[in-house]
Write a structure and sequence with these properties.
The protein is an alpha/beta fold. The protein folds into three domains: about 180 residues, Rossmann fold; about 170 residues, Rossmann fold, CATH 3.40.50; about 100 residues, GMP Synthetase, Chain A, domain 3 (2-Layer Sandwich). It is found in: Peroxisome. GO terms for molecular function: CoA-ligase activity. One of its GO terms (cellular component) is peroxisome. It holds the Pfam family AMP-binding_C.
C-alpha cells in the first residue's frame, strides 16, 4: 500500500504517514539504502528539520528542510493531479530559481523522469530533444516559454505545459498551469511503492553532440544514491553539512544538477542563482550570502580570477572550491589559490555518463592531476584493444562505478560501445603514475595527429595562457595538412588592451617552437579572434570552431 501525504495548505493540517527518522547523533553516519530518491530525501530532510535548505538569491525566498519536504510533496501531488505519472518523461526547460528546483525535486518524488533541456535551445533543438526523449509534459519558465510554445506544433505527444515564475495568470490556452497555481493547490501525494531503483530513470541529460547527434544519458535512483555514498562523509567528503553552496550551474547541465543534489543530501544550504548572463554576479552572490562552497567550470574560475584582481578581498568566506568540466590550467589554479584563503581546493573528474568519480586531495601539489579514484570507484588506462596499460603509458581512461549511467536512451549500439564488460569508456586520453594518480590529457577525438605523433591541445593551451601575458583565451585545433597530417593551429583571444599584430603572431609561434618538440609546433598558424565558440558549460566548442574555420565562416585576424 502506498504512503499518503495530504496537503491542505498549512503545516498544521498536514496528515502524513510517519517517516523513519534515523535517530543518530551524527547525520554523517546515515546508512544509504537502495531505495528511491523520494525515500532517501524524506528521511534526510526530516532529520535536518529547521536548518535552511534553499535560498533564492533573486526573490529572497527561503525554505528550511522541513518546509522543503512539505512543499515538494505538495507540488508532487499537484503535478500528479494534472496528469504527471511515474516513469513519464517531463522536460525541465527553465533557468535556476526556487520554482525550477522545486519542480525537479517533485518529479523525483513522483518517480517521473526529468529530461534536462538547455534554456539556450532554439525551436529546432527543443523539438529534437523532446522528440528523442518521448517527452509528454514540459515545465518551462516565463523567460523561456516562447520557444516551447513555438515548438508545440511539432510536438504532438506533449500533453501539457507548466510555466514557472509567470508572475501573473496564464492567458495562453496552451499553458495548463503556472507553478504559482500548483504551489497553492491542495493536493495529496502518494509516495510510490513500486520504484525499481536500479532500473527506473530519474534523469536524462543529453551529451553535447561532439561525436554525432546528442545522446540521452540515463541515470537511475540507485546511481544518484551511489553518488551520495561515494562523495559523502564516509566517502571522499567533498561537501559538508555546514557549507553554504552557491548553485550557479544550470540544472540542465549534469554539474549543476549534481551540485544541488549533493548539498541536499548532506543538509547544506544552497543559494540558488544564475550567472550565465554576467559572471560578475558570481562574486557578488558569494559575498552577499557568505558562500563557503563552489563547484566551478574552468571558464568561471578564470572569470573569478579577473574579478578578484579588481576587487581584492571578494569571496572572503569561500573555503572549498571544486573545479572540473574540462582540463584545468595549472597557472589558473595557482593564481586562484594566491587570491583566496581556501581550506580546500580540489580538481574533480566526472562526466555526464559517470557523475563524479575522481578527485585530488586538498593539496596544491596535486593540481597537475585529476587525483585518485573516489571510494567505490575503479579506474584504469586501456589501449585501443581494451588491454590495461602500465603506469605512465597513455591510453583511454575507463571507469567502473555504481554511479555510472544505465546507458544511452534507445541507443543500444552506442551503449555497448561505451560500456564494455561493465567498464565505461570515457573517450578521454590520460595516464596513471606509479602512485595511482590519474592525469588527463585531452578528449581522444580532439587529440591532434601531427607527423604521426599524438599531441594534446591542452598542453599547448596551458603553456600559452601561463606564459604570455597578452593572451586571454586560446584554443588549439588540428587542420588538415598534406605534409604533417594535422597541423596544430592556435586561435587566440587577446586581452582588451592588446591589439593583434604580425609581430605578436610570430612571438607566439616562436615560443611554442622553443619549448616543444617539432611535432607540436604551430604549423597551422596563429590567428586572432574576438571570441571563440563555447558550449553552455563554458568549454571550447572545438568541433564548431573547426567547422567555422574550414567553411570560412570564422572572423579571424
Amino acid at each position: 500500500m502506498m504512503n499518503l501525504f495530504c496537503f491542505c495548505g498549512a503545516k498544521e493540517n498536514v496528515i502524513e504517514m510517519p517517516v523513519d527518522k534515523m535517530a543518530l547523533d551524527d547525520v554523517d553516519t546515515f546508512s544509504l539504502g537502495d531505495g528511491s530518491l523520494c525515500d532517501h530525501y524524506r528521511a534526510r530532510w526530516t532529520y535536518y528539520g529547521d536548518k535552511t535548505a534553499l535560498v533564492d538569491h533573486v526573490t529572497g525566498d527561503l525554505l528550511t528542510y522541513s518546509e522543503l519536504l512539505e512543499t515538494v510533496s505538495q507540488l508532487a501531488g499537484a503535478l500528479s493531479a494534472i496528469g504527471v505519472t511515474a516513469r513519464q518523461r517531463v522536460a525541465l526547460h527553465a533557468d535556476n530559481s526556487m520554482q525550477s528546483v522545486l519542480a525537479l525535486l517533485a518529479l523525483e518524488f513522483l518517480n517521473a523522469t526529468t529530461v534536462a533541456c538547455k534554456t539556450s535551445f532554439t525551436v529546432r533543438e527543443m523539438v529534437y530533444q523532446c522528440t528523442a526523449a518521448d517527452v509528454e509534459f514540459i515545465i518551462t519558465d516565463k523567460a523561456c516559454y516562447n520557444v516551447v510554445l513555438q515548438s508545440l506544433d511539432q510536438l504532438p505527444m506533449v500533453r501539457k505545459v507548466v510555466v514557472a515564475n509567470m508572475g501573473s495568470p496564464a492567458t495562453d490556452l496552451r499553458i495548463a498551469a503556472t507553478m504559482e497555481d500548483l504551489l497553492k493547490r491542495r493536493a495529496c501525494f502518494r509516495v510510490p511503492d513500486d520504484v525499481d531503483p536500479s532500473e527506473d530513470e530519474v534523469l536524462i541529460v543529453f551529451t553535447s553532440g561532439t561525436t554525432g547527434l546528442p545522446k540521452g544519458v540515463l541515470h537511475t535512483h540507485s546511481g544518484f544514491i551511489a553518488q551520495f555514498r561515494i562523495t559523502g562523509p564516509s566517502g571522499s567528503n567533498v561537501i559538508r553539512s555546514t557549507d553554504v553552496c552557491f548553485q550557479w550551474g544550470p540544472l540542465s547541465h549534469i554539474s549543476g544538477n549534481l551540485s544541488l543534489q549533493l548539498a541536499l543530501n548532506v543538509g547544506a544550504t544552497s543559494i540558488i542563482g544564475d550567472v550565465k548572463r554576467d559572471l560578475r554576479d558570481c562574486v557578488r552572490i558569494c559575498d552577499t550570502h557568505r558562500v563557503t562552497f563552489l563547484i566551478a567550470m574552468p571558464v568561471v574560475l578564470k572569470a573569478m580570477i579577473d574579478l578578484l584582481k579588481i576587487n581584492p578581498g571578494g569571496c572572503s568566506t569561500l573555503k572549498t572550491v571544486l573545479v572540473g568540466g574540462g582540463v584545468v590550467s595549472v597557472s589558473w589554479s595557482k593564481e586562484f589559490l594566491s587570491l583566496l584563503n581556501l581550506d580546500c581546493y580540489r580538481i574533480v573528474f566526472g562526466m555526464s555518463e559517470s557523475l563524479l568519480v575522481c578527485a585530488t586531495p586538498d593539496q596544491e601539489k596535486w593540481i597537475t592531476s585529476i587525483g585518485l579514484p573516489m571510494p567505490g570507484v575503479e579506474m584504469k588506462i586501456v589501449d585501443s584493444e581494451g588491454n590495461a596499460l602500465s603506469p605512465n603509458e597513455k591510453g583511454e581512461i575507463a571507469i567502473r562505478a555504481p554511479c555510472n549511467m544505465k546507458g544511452y536512451d534507445k541507443n543500444p549500439e552506442a551503449t555497448s560501445e561505451t560500456i564494455v564488460n561493465g567498464w565505461l569508456m570515457t573517450g578521454d586520453c590520460g595516464y596513471v603514475d606509479e602512485q595511482g594518480v590519474y592525469f588527463i590529457l585531452e578528449r581522444i577525438k580532439q587529440m591532434i595527429k601531427c607527423m604521426d605523433n599524438q599531441l594534446a591541445p591542452a598542453e599547448l593551451e596551458d603553456f600559452l595562457i601561463s606564459s604570455h601575458e597578452s593572451i586571454k583565451e586560446v584554443a588549439i585545433i588540428g587542420l588538415p595538412d598534406d605534409k604533417v597530417g594535422e597541423a596544430p593551429a592556435a586561435y587566440v583571444v587577446l586581452k582588451d588592451e592588446v591589439e593583434p599584430s604580425d609581430e605578436l603572431r610570430k612571438q607566439i609561434a616562436d615560443m611554442v617552437k622553443e619549448e616543444f618538440s617539432v611535432y607540436k609546433h604551430l604549423y597551422g598558424g596563429v590567428f586572432f579572434a574576438k571570441e571563440l565558440p563555447k558550449t553552455d558549460s563554458g568549454k571550447f566548442a572545438k568541433t564548431d570552431l573547426k567547422k567555422l574555420i574550414l567553411e570560412g565562416n570564422m572572423e579571424i585576424f
